Every structure is written in structure tokens, then in C-alpha cells.
Amino acid sequence: MVREDVHTKGIPVLCASCEARHRGVCGALTPDQLVSLAKSSTKHRAGEGEELIGDAENIESYSNVLSGVVKLTKTLSDGRQQIVGLQFAPDFLGRPFKTESVVTAEAATGVELCSFPRGVMERMMADQSDLKHRLLQQTLKELDEARDWMVTLGRKTAAEKVASFLLMIARNIDPAEAGQRSTAFDLPLSRAEIADFLGLTIETVSRQFTRLRSDGVIRIEHTRHVIVDDLGRLAARAGG
Fold first, then answer.
1. What is the rounded CA–CA span in Å between residue 229 and residue 220?
2. pLDDT by residue (tens digit) across 143-184?
């Protein structure tokens, strides 16, 4: 049960403690609109490796990512796949105004999602300019991140690429920890997937992890749990 106060008055229970309501697209909605959306929304979990939507599939619903990491991939005509992005809470999963998905979205870790029918959200977008503004902001944020990642892939050294990847995860995987100087997280991708994402070999990725660990920039437990005691040191190794 959520205690009602000035911040939750009129807010549906489903939305009261939701991170996406504050920082995601739902933050643009009034309490009445949240009530309307909550009536057709469902919170659900997906396990690691579960496909959320396939490339070229009809889009029937959109989702807010509440926790975990979603992996986005593109498939070439010969079946090869390329990881093209990661999504974290409170990102919006889906492409408004498109009838078919242009990527495959898969749960890279266990994820929690809040999903709602495409038609309901598009009607709200037509009526609520603030909601369209929020979606535009997220789209531009993703565009900026994609451009930054192009620099990482095209100009940075292998050491800087691996550090940049770890820094991205550290800054995004737990929004409640934003602003802290240290953090810990489980890697959402395997070594092979990290190599694919960065355009490196598995051996190179492993060597760079070893170097970061030897230099005291990171600690690794149980192969996938990474501890960063000083995010500033990791940022310096990422090359700015």
C-alpha cells in the first residue's frame, strides 16, 4: 500500500512509486491521464534472453523499462546480428508512429516493464503536447548517445572502448544511484557480446578487463560483478 501525500494524490497505485513517472515519458501526464493509462497498463517481468519484440514485427504495444537492461539488435540478410544499443530504466521501448519494429529487443538481464497498448498511447500523444515533447526529448537523447558511441567505436583505442562501455553501464544501470562516486553492477552482456558491441575480439576485451583490474580501476567478482570505487578514474580511462 502506498501512502497518499501531496506527491501521490490522485496518482494510481500502479504509478505511485514508478521511476518512469518522474523521469520518463509518463512524467508529462496529469493524474487523470495516468489513471486512464493505468487502466490498460500491465507490469510484467521478462527473463534474461527473452525476446520482447522481433525485427519487422507489428508493434502492438509500447513499454517503459522499469528495471534491468534491454538489448537492441539489427539482423542482416544473411542472419548476422549486431548489437546497436542498450536501454535502461526509465527508457521508452518502442517507436511511435511506426507499425513495424526496426530492431529486435531482448532482455539482456531480467527486466521489469510497464506495457500499454499502442493505440492508447498514440491517442494520448495526439491530445497531450507535453507527452510528445517528452518523447522528442528522449529521441534526441538517444540520437546524441548514438553519435557519442560512433566516436567511441571510430576513434577510441581498445582500452578506451572497454572503459567507455563500463562507464555507460555504471551511469545508467541503476538510476537511483545517479551522482554517486562509486557503484557496483552485474555486466548485462557476455564477453562475446561486449566484443561484438565494441567491434573488438573477445581476447582484446578480456585483456582490457584484466588491465583495468590490475590497475585498480575496477574489481571483478564471480566473473560478471563489477565494482567501481572511483567513477572519476574510470571516466579518465574512457578518454572523455
1. 11
2. 998 999 999 999 999 999 999 999 999 999 875 555 678 999
Q: What cell numbers appear for 173 in the block? A: 544501470
Within 8 A by CB and 6+ apart from 136, the residues are none
Contacts of 6 (CB under 8 A, 6+ apart): none
C-beta separation of 71 from 108 below 8 A:
yes
The torsion angles phi and psi of 206, rounded to 5 degrees, stand at -60, -40
Residue 24 and residue 15 in contact, taking contact as beta carbons nearer than 8 Å = no
Grid coordinates belonging to 131 = 507527452
pLDDT digit string, tens, across residues 32-52: 888 888 889 999 999 999 999
Strand partners, 85: 72
C-alpha cell at 182: 562509486
- Apex 53 CA angle, 47 and 56, nearest 5: 155
Q: CA-to-CA distance for 195 and 126, rounded, in angstroms? A: 41
Alpha-carbon gap, residue 154 to 137, rounded angstroms: 26
Q: Could you give the CA distance from residue 76 to residue 92 in angstroms, rounded to a whole number?
A: 25
Helix (H, G, I), strand (E, B) or coil at 221: strand
Helix or strand or coil: residue 35?
helix
Determine the Cα–Cα distance for residues 194 and 102; give it in Å rounded to an integer: 22
E strand residue ranges, 47-141: 51-53, 61-67, 69-75, 81-88, 92-93, 104-107, 111-117
Residue 216's Cβ-count burial label (10 Å; 0-12, 13-18, 19+) is exposed
End-to-end CA gap in the chain: 44
Three-state DSSP class for residue 219: strand
